[in-house]
Design goal:
- The protein is of the alpha/beta class and 216 residues long.
- The protein has a domain at 31-174: Glucose Oxidase, domain 1.
- 35% of the residues lie in helices and 27% in strands.
- The chain has helices spanning 3-11, 15-26, 64-72, 94-102, 117-123, 179-203, 206-210, and strands at 37-38, 45-56, 78-82, 90-92, 107-114, 128-133, 142-147, 151-153, 156-158, 163-167, 170-174.
- Strands 1, 2, 3, 4, 5, 6, 7, 10 and 11 form a nine-stranded mixed sheet that branches. A two-stranded antiparallel sheet has the order 8-9.
- The longest helix is centred in the C-terminal third of the chain and has 25 residues, at 179-203.
- The chain is elongated, with a radius of gyration of 19 Å.
- The two termini are 27 Å apart.
């Protein structure tokens, strides 16, 4: 299945079903920490990850890898930034959002902070998922170490090209090697749960509605 078909498929599939399917197909959780949540809007996001690794510093350096990757990445990318645990620093803000919008990216997902929320909501309505909200700049606090490398997002490993699926329910990392199988199973879960919901309403009973499939 082509990448574009996968993206459109996941866009029409419940994020919760994707999370369940990743558990079963990949044999490990793809759930990002619940603190990494939408800060700008509740839009559904789906796209391939481009990754940035950051670390602590007392140097006053621009986040060069992050700045470069915004211009260098394909349209539709999800910019994923890991901070090695430095959550009280804003690794994303208004100017980076402007760059992401100019390059037609899908979203930013941050294991760290975002700032300029009023500006981003007002001018761009660009989806940003972050662990914290913080007004502090990275200058003298964090620096970019590498781009397009494996990153740890609070215990979940993200590789460049993995699909990121997210909305108000949270974010799920779908390993690209399993993406087609995950999508197929997630669609089956959606269909099964829709039928169960219908049976619950028709029978007037949660127990009877679940009898056909059980709670799986």
């Amino acid at each position: 299945m082509k990448l574009e078909e996968l993206i459109e498929g996941f866009r029409g599939t419940a994020t919760a079903s994707v999370a369940d399917a990743v558990d079963k197909i990949a044999g490990k959780s793809g759930l990002l920490n619940h603190d990494i949540r939408p800060r700008i809007n509740e839009n559904k996001i789906v796209g391939p990850a481009v990754t940035v690794l950051e670390g602590p510093t007392d140097e006053f350096l621009p986040p060069q890898h992050a700045l470069d990757i915004i211009d260098a990445s394909d349209a539709g990318s999800v910019i994923v930034i890991s901070t090695n645990g430095s959550v009280d620093v804003a690794v994303w803000g208004g100017l980076m959002t402007a760059g992401a919008v100019a390059n037609k990216h899908e979203a930013a997902v941050l294991d760290g902070g975002v700032r300029d929320i009023v500006e981003i909501r007002r001018d761009y309505d660009f989806p940003v998922f972050s662990r914290t909200v913080c007004p502090g700049t990275t200058l003298g606090r964090a620096k970019t170490l590498a781009a397009n490398v494996e990153v740890d997002m609070g215990g979940v490993i993200v590789h460049p090209g993995d699909l990121i699926v997210g909305d108000i329910d949270g974010c799920v990392v779908v390993p690209i090697a399993h993406a087609e199988a995950v999508l197929e199973m997630a669609r089956e879960i959606d269909e099964r749960e829709a039928e169960q919901a219908r049976l619950i309403i028709e029978t007037g009973s949660l127990k009877k509605g679940l009898e056909k499939y059980g709670r799986i």
